[in-house]
Design brief:
Layout (H helix, E strand, L loop, with lengths): L3 E6 L2 E6 L10 H13 L7 E6 L4 E3 L4 H4 L4 H19 L5 E5 L2 E3 L1 H7 L3 E5 L3 E3 L13 H9 L1 H10 L3 E2 H6 L5 E3 L4 H13 L3 H15 L7 H9 L3 H22 L1
Parallel strand pairs: 2-3, 3-5, 4-6, 5-7, 6-8, 7-10
Antiparallel strand pairs: 1-2, 8-9
Helix pairs in contact: 1-3, 3-10, 4-5, 5-6
The structure holds 4-(N,N-dimethylamino)cinnamoyl-COA (DAK).
Length: 257
């Protein structure tokens, strides 16, 4: 695997997304590797999974804007189907999952953290669903999971504005379970995972199923996917993504001078 690392300690697996030059952004390749890694998990051995980003700057900075920029409607749909399959797979794992969020968790990154059962954040963590500003909508279950976690009113505000929120605000509104200093976030996630992993796999599977069936049972629809694909017919999407790329290039050139 080029971008995914899976380490197993006792009954705890840690899956690291490592694409640091793009702040761990999710492109087709990362999503495919993520999917294969989830398929490879042996649940006789792994009883809790931590998901994290490599380094401390980002958990995941979102879907890859450079790749998405020129998607046709069909490519947008294919990306959406692949992404939704991966997120559904993650959501339905028969073991508890913990997102250890250090740094940026934006767009698809925030959604990835929400597809985990528990979110632990570093003090430096930043959450946002900035898709509106890119002329698209969240497509990995973000519109639905955010509303369940923080309430419909707050979710709509965050989705409409794309406002970035700090770890402490995320804690206040119930988006994350706990906040730790950056230096100990991964250690704390490991501690919690090791504690959880001691429990009966059957009982934990049952708890997860009961909660998810009640709160997240309508997620596996194509609503978001179709609405997401339709955004790629618009000029707004193309212009907004182009502007992001141009801003990054301009910043690089300024730094060089
Ligand atoms: N995609 C591609 N490259 C990215 C990226 C991203 N999301 N985020 C960062 N990068 C790249 C930058 O382009 C830069 O690359 P180089 O120029 O060095 O080659 C490198 O990472 C470092 O970034 P910066 O130089 O910008 O670093 P800064 O510290 O200055 O800023 C930042 C960090 C995270 C604030 C900034 O990079 C940023 O604003 N990034 C974009 C964040 C964002 O808007 N994310 C949301 C993307 S949209 C769906 C599924 C999913 C989605 C939608 C639908 N369906 C299935 C239907 C999700 C959409 C999204 O996630």
């Amino acid at each position: 695997m080029k971008h995914i690392l899976l380490e197993i300690k006792g009954a705890v697996g840690t899956l690291t997304i490592d694409r640091q030059d793009a702040l761990n952004a999710l492109n087709f390749e990362v999503l495919k590797e993520l999917s294969e890694t989830l398929d490879s998990l042996d649940f006789n051995r792994v009883n809790c999974l931590i998901i994290r980003g490599a380094g401390t700057r980002a958990f995941v900075s979102g879907a890859d804007i450079a790749e998405m920029k020129n998607f046709s409607v069909e490519e947008g749909h294919n990306f959406s189907v692949l992404g939704n399959n991966v997120f559904t797979k993650l959501d339905s794992l028969p073991i508890p999952t913990i997102a250890a969020v250090c740094g940026y968790a934006l767009g698809g990154g925030c959604e990835l953290s929400m597809a985990c059962d528990i979110r632990l954040a570093s003090e430096s963590a930043v959450f946002s669903q900035p898709e509106m500003g890119l002329g698209i909508i969240p497509g990995f279950g973000g519109t639905q999971r955010l509303a369940v976690l923080v309430g419909v009113g707050r979710a709509k505000e965050l989705l409409y504005t794309g406002r970035r929120i700090s770890a402490s605000e995320a804690l206040n509104i119930g988006l994350v379970n706990a906040v730790y200093p950056t230096e100990i976030i991964f250690e704390e996630a490991e501690k919690m995972a090791q504690r959880i992993a001691k429990n009966s796999p059957t009982a934990m599977r049952a708890v997860k199923k009961a909660v998810n069936k009640t709160y997240f049972s309508d997620l596996h629809t194509n609503v978001e996917a179709n609405l997401f694909a339709s955004c790629f017919e618009t000029e707004e999407q193309r212009a907004a993504m182009e502007a992001f790329i141009e801003r990054t290039i301009a910043k690089k050139e300024k730094e060089k001078k």
